[in-house]
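Human: I would love a firmer grasp of how sequence relates to backbone shape in proteins. Could you go through the record with me and say what the backbone is doing? Here is the record:
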Amino acid sequence: MLSAIVITKNEEDRIKACLESIKWADEIIVVDNGPQDNTLKIAEKYTQKVFKVNLQDFSEVRNFAMEKTSGDWVLFVDADERVLEPLKEEIEVIISFSDYSAYAISRRNVIFGTEVKYGPFWPDWVIRLLKRKDFESWVGKIHEYPKFKGKLGYSKNSLLHLTHRNIDQIVLKSMEWSKIDAKLRLDANHPKMSGWRFLRIFASEIFHQGILRRGFLNGTIGIMDSILQAFSMYMTYIRLWEMQ
């Protein structure tokens, strides 16, 4: 039996397509973290297991959802991801015959409507399919990951990830994540921010995104994404300065 989990927050424009792509699962669980739109009403058309929470820790949300499952295997899908037919068929085989305890699934990333495969965007492995009896917990406030007993396998097929859809979505997401990231750095006693630190961080992040991750070498989309990623990191340090 497969349980599919979708974590959402104000995803009324995307949740239907996501749930359509996993409606073949034996059980669907939707956890909405801080709902302010019609996401829950849409989700209730696909499952009765819909929950409202208000948690800041991404691992807490995923662990909460995991506790609501009853399947032998659990698949985590974000609202901006889609399970296409080849991956569906592969998962059905995995949960029937595999000896692995978890699977990493690659993602086909779409930025501003264009699929990209440079730098970190391919194969972009994420551990999303877990054998329930071997699962331990999700850890990490952001960029969370699951701990489990046993071996990790890798899928042959990919999730479709509709990331960075428009400038509003990117900026709003960056503003939200920067609050958590800044607090983590503050709690870790990060050195006091100053003018020269801001200049160094800006220069190093532009180099990291544009050159090391090859964003500047991949046309208009790559250049825009590199600048926006650097902006996201910069907002973290501005928030850290405020907190200090």
